[in-house]
Design brief:
about 80 residues, mainly alpha, 4 helices, about 0% strand, globular
Amino acid sequence: MSFVDQVYSLYRDQLTDDEEDAVIIVLSILEDHSREDIMSLIGNMNDDEVMQMMGIYLVEMLKLKMIQDGKLPPRKTSILH
């Protein structure tokens, strides 16, 4: 079972139709873990999971840069930044 599956299983009942719920859970998880913990989780991911994680990260960061340059409208939610 992947880490995401474990997190989802653990918090399934706390997630509603608001994506802010996921943001709050992720921020809480990150707050509770050290860099070493996070690197260990990444080290345990398979290649597809690592590529997917990097892809999502790059897309989100590029969107933030586009918002900063006025190329996209500001977000309504503050996703992990």
